[in-house]
Amino acid sequence: TATYYDIIDLFGIQVASLVLELTNDEDMLKELGKTKYLKLKMKNMSSWALTIKLCDRLDNACDLVCSNEKFRNNYLKDTIEIINYIMDNRHLTKTQIIIIKDIINKLNLIANEYEYNEYYNLINKTKAKIKAM
Predict the structure, then answer these.
(1) How far apart (Å, rounded) are the C-alpha atoms in residues 56 and 76?
(2) For residue 29, how many other CB atoms are within 10 A of its CB?
(3) In sequence order, what DSSP letters do the residues of 32-62 get, joined into one string?
(4) Taking the alpha carbons of 49, 36, 25, 43 in that order, is the dihedral positive or negative?
(5) What does DSSP assign to residue 64?
(6) From CA 16, how far away is CA 66, in angstroms rounded?
(7) How far is C-alpha 51 from the geometric centre of its chain's CA atoms?
(8) SS3 25
(9) What is the pLDDT of residues 95-131, one digit of tens each?
(10) CA-to-CA distance for 29 and 25, rounded, in angstroms?
(11) Greatest CA span in the chain, whole angstroms?
């Protein structure tokens, strides 16, 4: 396992700081639960880290077709909740809004493909919120 200082030596302080910021605090994760932890973490992280985290979320959403139904359903629900929370609780850059739009569009395709009717209203409300930004 590479330490913070190993990463500084290899890639510089900016990359090391982003890695540190994006690394989960396992104790807090267990204490708060994954969704609440991610909402708070993403609300408070730097703009650079949030952009990376949103790109990761988009990549994961693209892989949902390969996931089992329980995971896919939970991921869809959690992602919509997290996205709405950060849209309501922090300033977002134009780039971040574009990535969020892409995430929501991908989740909409998944909801349609697997007939997750319970998510249509949530997705449409999120789309409306994005348009209003």
Answers:
(1) 14
(2) 14
(3) H-HHHHHHHHHHHS-HHHHHHHHHHHHHHHH
(4) positive
(5) G
(6) 32
(7) 9
(8) coil
(9) 999 999 999 999 999 999 988 888 989 999 999 999 9
(10) 6
(11) 50
